[in-house]
Amino acid sequence: MMPTRDSDATALPRARLAELVDALVAQGWYVGEDFIPAELCAALHHELGAMADHEALEAAGIGRGQEHALRRDIRGDAIRWLDRESQARRGYLDAMAELQQELNRALFLGLFEYEAHFAHYPPGAFYRRHFDSFRGRANRVISTVGYLNPDWPEDGGGEMVIFAPDDPEREVARVRPEAGTFACFLSDSVPHEVLPTRLLRSSIAGWFRRNTSLGGLVDPAR
């Protein structure tokens, strides 16, 4: 059952969903401006700013489980996992549920869950080139990034660089972190990085997951 929406203002543009699916099939990644409703972006940006002011974020690490480690030379953001405790967070998760339904309908991916966190990059922070999952080893299938900063300047830095799936050295897109822009790509095939930011940079990183098992445990925890 799909979650009940708090407002139609969180709905994704239907025509853009087909555009996104076609891009994933053709090249493994998609970037769309004005994809996330402006009202929703503004509410989420305000919430993340309040969390940062109240020190309610935690330093992000790399790796999962026993391999998790803090490496500020690789990644410098602070995060907080999304829950449904505010109307804005519910709205974003409902929008992603809508996208999940469309991806499963069009591509038969068997996506069963979405996990996401706020990402807060202070000036100077970056995230070195990486994949979001490793082929055959993880259950993250499709990665998403929603950007929240309004009026991001041309010289603000903090762009996400997307590299070609068949050539990790070849840049194919550079995404300015402007509110409303949404990026989506194959988690185990598309290398990407976040360039150093000159300003506070706010986004939501997320992953659509399949149900898998590891070490006898079904759907191991993140």
TrEMBL record:
Top-rank taxon: Bacteria
Keyword Ribonucleoprotein attached: no
Gene3D superfamilies reported for this sequence: q2cbj1_9rhob like domain
One MF annotation (Gene Ontology) recorded for this entry: ferrous iron binding
The UniProt record lists the keyword Lipid biosynthesis: no
Protein name (record): 2OG-Fe(II) oxygenase
Domain Fe2OG dioxygenase: 107-210
PANTHER family noted in UniProt: EGL NINE HOMOLOG-RELATED, HIF PROLYL HYDROXYLASE, ISOFORM C
Taxonomic source organism: Halomonas urmiana
Keywords of this entry: Dioxygenase, Iron, Metal-binding, Oxidoreductase, Vitamin C
Requisite cofactors: L-ascorbate
GO biological process, one term: cellular response to hypoxia
InterPro entries the record matches: HIF_prolyl_hydroxylases, Oxoglu/Fe-dep_dioxygenase_dom, Pro_4_hyd_alph, Pro_4_hyd_alph_FE2OG_OXY
One protein family per Pfam: 2OG-FeII_Oxy_3
